[in-house]
Amino acid sequence: xxxxxxxxxxxxxxxxxxxxxxxxxxxxxxxxxxxxxxxxxxxxxxxxxxxxxxxxxxxxxxxxxxxxxxxxxxxxxxxxxxxxxxxxxxxxxxxxxxxxxxxxxxxxxxxxxxxxxxxxxxxxxxxxxxxxxxxxxxxxxxxxxxxx
Length: 148
What we know:
Elements: H1 2-29, E1 38-40, H2 45-54, E2 56-59, E3 67-70, E4 75-79, E5 84-92, E6 99-102, E7 106-107, E8 124-127, E9 131-135, E10 141-147
Antiparallel strand pairs: 1-5, 2-3, 2-10, 3-4, 4-5, 5-6, 5-7, 6-8, 8-9, 9-10
């Protein structure tokens, strides 16, 4: 009996650890961005125009199903091809630059050994009408998505 109580206690500690980690992850997603070139999803007419250009679904061409879908309310949903993504974006305030910053992701944590989860590294995107370049924290290109 004592052994089963210890096992139950260990399982409950694991459940609590996962719940706390999830809460901390989501709390991190709500942090504001102090980078001045990314002014949010509201602002000038130019940033509104750029925002209207980013809206919709962008997909990877290779197998795996990686995609990001940008919504008017500033949210982004997607998939790495294995794990779901939920985050927010803010548009670049420079009207000459079609770019957006992605906040840290809330994501599922499934293991997918045969899937290259490059999209999970994305923190900034630059785009035109048909193609989106995904960059990591350092500005290095990690992949491309295409308007679907």
